Amino acid sequence: MREIAFEHGVARQTVSRVLEDAGVETRIGRRRADIDVEWLRRRYIDERQTIPEIAAEVGVTMTTINRHLEAAGIPRRARGSASRATAIRVDPRAGDSPLLRRILVGQDATQRAERFLIVARHDTMTAAATELGVTLSILANQMRRIGVDAGGPLIQRAFRGQPLALTALGADVHRELSRAFEFSEAEGRARRAEESQ
User: Fold this and answer.
1) Average of per-residue pLDDT across 53-76
2) Among 130, 117, 129, which residue's Cα sits nearest to residue 170?
3) Phi, psi (degrees; rounded to nearest 5) at 126
4) What is the value of pTM for the model shown?
5) Could you tell me the CA-to-CA distances from 133 to 4, 12, 138 in Å, in that order?
């Protein structure tokens, strides 16, 4: 439902209601995650990704990742031990782009970037916050932070009946992030197809 909602620019609850009204039975609960132990070991031990980063990448909860770590016999790091690595690591999706290398670095950078792309699809920040299930203040702070990282404001907020709009810098960021994240999704689909063979 999340993928359908994202593709059509609506809230997940809207997709759920439409399916329910149409009499379509939906799956209840979170999807089962089949996580390759070596992949998990590489991400957590070698690349020093944090549990929240891995959970976001796989699309599951941190508890699920913790369970997989325990089942694989991978010892967990002490809290905060990956913070330095997280603070200086640039997301590989940034590639050679100087703009993305400023934005996609540090803790929660990927989440801010993904949320910026969602905000850009909406007429108001409130609508985006509702879709994401976060408060407006949290989302506004994240958009301010990504603007600081990029070098200036990215969004002109909705005002007196006018929809939210991207600044020139915001349009550049949107274009580069869309390209980087689209490539990343295509790469992930190819990897999953290869692994299933």
Assistant:
1) 85
2) 117
3) -60, -45
4) 0.52
5) 17, 10, 10
